[in-house]
Amino acid sequence: MEHVNTRYLPPPFITVPPSAADYAPNGKPMSCDDELTKKEPTIGDEGVTKIEIQDASNGVEPTSKASSEYIEDEFKIDTLFYRICYFCFILGVNFYKSRSPQWRFVSMVIVSVNCLINIYFIGYVAYVTMRKPFEAERVATSISIGTWVLQATLSTLFLAHWQATSQPCKVLKQLYVAHKGVGIHHHRKSLNTIVRTFYVVLFLIVAYFGAHIVANFLEVEVGYWDSDITRIFGDRRFFIIVQLANLYCILCWGVALFIFSLLIHSAHFEFEYFNDQVRSQLTISGSPYRKSGCKCNYEYQSDDALCRYLLKLMKIHNGLTECVKRLDLMFHRYAFVMIATIIPTTIFSLFMVCHRPTSSFCWEFIFSFPLVCFCVFSFIALVNSPSKLHNTIYATKSALCANTHIWFPYRPNVYHSALAFVCHLDQTNLGVSIWGFAVVTRQLVLTTLSVMVTCLALFLQVGDCSAANRPA
To answer: Which chain regions cross the lipid bilayer (predicted)?
Structure first.
């Protein structure tokens, strides 16, 4: 730890490279849960977590800079985040600058080969689709497969870019500096659930592609799947090369998606805990906000102390908003590309399920329905956390206005401090955007779903017309 700037001390949730002290007496490395158990925050009466708010001059300054070596070291991050990032190391995606040049070169070769195979596959699918006469079912199947592989390939490139620029580590560090990670710890169970879901999704992806590989070797015709696609390298048995490349990038797609979800949920929980602090400030005993885990700070009952407390809240909120801006800078292109590709994939995969051929009804349903589930899950993961973050950010103003102790009775100094805080909260377009076009909100999600249903109805009608005009 000599390379860490003395102005920044890692919070208790940040891990360091394993050393001799990190091993149990039996010689086995300590688990992440054991590490967290050693460093629980102070617990007060009735199991309520006590949060001390300090001035920036007494603690960590939001503008303090650690050494570049710390920022680039992937080990000094939250243990939950490391559980997802460790899967990147298994896949061979290691582009952190702290890695040796040899490791980064090997990672570049692995990622480049898989991405090039997938790009060639996408081009071949487009060529086969346009070469043959139009059939709605066959075109829908080809487009859904091609867009999913395209989405996975782009996710792999985004993941490599995030590692090369150390953006996830910088976001996590800024989250901990802004509010000491109290919201992340308070909602630890929810973040653990996200990590468990990550493992389940990866297992289902491997099982799904394993079934496809077995079906290819057995030469099973699956619904409207174009048989020419499997002969991309001449012999159908060589199609396993494309399937393994697809599986590799789709696993990277899962890692990138859960990094996206975990970081945005972390920011959401920080704002949620911050809002609970604003609501619970000097509320009466028995208030429903007492259940949130925040204890009222009765030492701020004097006017001057309350003004200082509001100023501290403004400083914390400013640090959290800077985290959101960094999240938007990191994810706005990724969110745009993923949403733009997941919409046609979902529509055409639903079309595949609705237009099942009677000759292979069972096989078509078995291989199409999981793709629909993956598409729906990824769409929810892409829009759920940003919309929740947006609502939580704008709930701060309502929480402040609802705190009657601040506004009544009228005290000029407290009133003007609270009014300055309200003006500070009026920040438009604060959240994760789609490449700057629009912030992801619930209204945007509702509009997108409406457009998707309309397009699905249109394509179903086109499919019926195509089937009616097809010669017997």
So the answer is: 80-96, 108-127, 139-160, 198-218, 238-264, 334-353, 365-383, 444-462
